[in-house]
Design brief:
196 residues, mainly alpha, disordered N terminus
Length: 196
């Protein structure tokens, strides 16, 4: 299998400082781990929501998440933006989605109080997503805001089914952003192949 190497437009960033390279490699390892946990989370989430969520082909349309950049198709994102620019978007998305996952965890505590593994996975993925956002901030030289961004006021009258839909959308958005982040971190963390 061919290993993706650094993008040509990264020449201006090379060679990276050892501390930055180390942070990128650690962030990549964390992202790979998070991908595994997030896929487990999606399966566990569907299992506890009942029909139609049990159908793996059931997928609600993406929802607009305040503060989270829109995730465009890969071919549209990767053309105009460099890998560091895409990672800045990933950093913003992960911070917002980490807070969203904690909200979903609260909802599931009310909707499915016996789903202990689901509650644990939501908490673990949310916490590690916040850690990944902090790591990306350090690697990219971004200000690391303390804690997670404040969420908008939660509507108490939100229906049970709407909460289930929103929770699935959040989990799917987390997985999609992690896949994008992994590709970009692999590109930055892997040294360019030596020229013949």
């Amino acid at each position: 299998m061919e290993v993706e190497r650094a993008d040509p437009d990264l020449a201006q960033y090379a060679p990276l400082e050892p501390s930055v390279q180390d942070m990128l490699e650690k962030s990549h390892s964390l992202t790979v781990l998070l991908l595994t946990h997030c896929r487990d989370l999606l399966l566990e989430y569907r299992r506890w929501q009942g029909p139609p969520f049990l159908d793996q082909s059931f997928s609600p349309p993406p929802f607009a998440c305040p503060g989270c950049p829109p995730l465009l198709p890969a071919e549209l994102r990767r053309s105009p933006l460099s890998a560091p620019e895409r990672l800045r978007e990933s950093h913003a998305a992960h911070r917002v989605l980490a807070a969203r996952l904690l909200r979903v965890q609260r909802w599931q505590g009310e909707l499915n109080p016996r789903a202990l593994r689901l509650h644990r996975l939501l908490g673990e993925v949310g916490s590690r997503l916040g850690l990944l956002a902090s790591n990306l901030a350090g690697a990219l030289g971004l200000p690391d805001s303390p804690g997670l961004p404040e969420e908008e006021e939660e509507e108490e009258e939100e229906e049970e089914y709407a909460r289930k839909l929103a929770g699935l959308s959040v989990c799917q958005a987390v997985l999609s952003w992690l896949e994008e982040t992994e590709r970009d971190l692999r590109s930055l963390a892997s040294p360019p192949a030596p020229q013949p």
